[in-house]
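Lab notebook page, bench 4
Experiment: in silico fold of construct C2
Operator: M.H.
Input chain length: 460 residues
Purpose: comparison with the prior construct
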Amino acid sequence: MAAAADGEVLAEARATFSERTPAGTVHEQDANDWWGAVCQTVRAVLKNLSVAHAAAQVAGLAVTSTSGSLVLADARGEPLRAAILYDDARGAAVADDLNRRISCEQDKINSSYSLAKALWVRQQEPSIWERARYLLHPADWLTGKLTGQLGISDYSNALKLGYDQEREEWTAAVGVAGIPREMLPRVVRPGQQVGDVSPKASEETGLAAGVPVLAGATDGLASLVSSGANDAGHANTTLGTTLVWKVLTRIKPRLSAGMYCHHHPGNLWAPGAASNTGPGSLRPDDPTLDPGEMDRRAAPHLPTTLQCYLLGSRGERFPFLNHDAESFVEGNAASPGEWYAAQLQSLACVERWGYERLAACGVTVGEEVFSAGSAAASPVLSQLRADLLRRVVIRCRNPAASFGAAILAAGETLYGGDLTAAMRRMTQICSSYHPDPGACEKFDGAYRLFRAACTARGYK
């Protein structure tokens, strides 16, 4: 995505990756496919810019990617195996083992952490581990491909590798795990310049050599930046493949299991968490229907007594932790519309549950929830969420992680390092949904039924 200093999107392009390889708890992708997609989409964006905005020039760029996904690369930066994605659960046992060996004061890790994935590779694939030089996240690796400089990460991605953003050092867990320091990346803040587009990357992408490359962020943090949330108390839900919660605070809170806290580059803290369920788990009866038509069919059935919890594969990490959790459906849908309504309602119930867990840790969740991700565009889901959350649900003009990466790049190159100014100037509210007092009471009842259905299965 290419954006101007006022937030206008000038051009964008998409590419589809090859199928992932899901087999139970195994979720992997070929990192080289990502680079191919970067080259393809960047060239498409540059072509569109040259046609519609001939005078436009790229001032800088940043990359965003999923949190906790791991690339093991050799000394030349070549991936040594398929990248292990954020929702790959094979590291659960090694994470539990590490948690038993670190002090109770230390933050615990789970299988979604890149640190757990690295330990799994060391244990299960020693020949790969011996050849590994860099432990990187997708944004780190792609940034390295752009600049030719390897071994650099931003502190939002490095968090799940065991980086303490408050102390700006690696945690004791990394030492207990015995990860060699030379394998760990150098950590910088999101939006900090880490290099320039190299001649080789210029040849492959079409970007001019020498264009500044800025450190990116996880998709959750980049979506938060693009969502419009920019002050303490503002909450943000990203409705992408999964659900991601963030709340802005001035002071870093003490969180419980399954949560983490990002240092927001606008000098705030962003406690939050991520689920394995989300819009990516929706299962419409007729996938050929467009989302608007599915919403229209679902709306008359809300709220519904039909309960469900949908997971793409076994295991959930938040708002509860259960490695063996599975999807469930309780009740029989009278129509495809009611079935889809139950799925949307389930997403909103999980979202409310997540904010309740954060509030129980002392996080002040304000009256406004800023939305990001493609599913945030649904008016039906947005109103449902407002009624179930009892909060105003807000959507800005471009609440996408790619736009958040553009804001990070603009903050440094066009706003003199003032990211808060970039966020306020480049984000604009386009829709707001206020809770309906009459509907809220009905949705409270639906939420109680949902929690009871989860509790009956040990999900609590």
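Observations: The chain has a mean pLDDT of 94. The CA atoms of residues 227 and 421 lie 14 Å apart.
Next step: discuss at group meeting.
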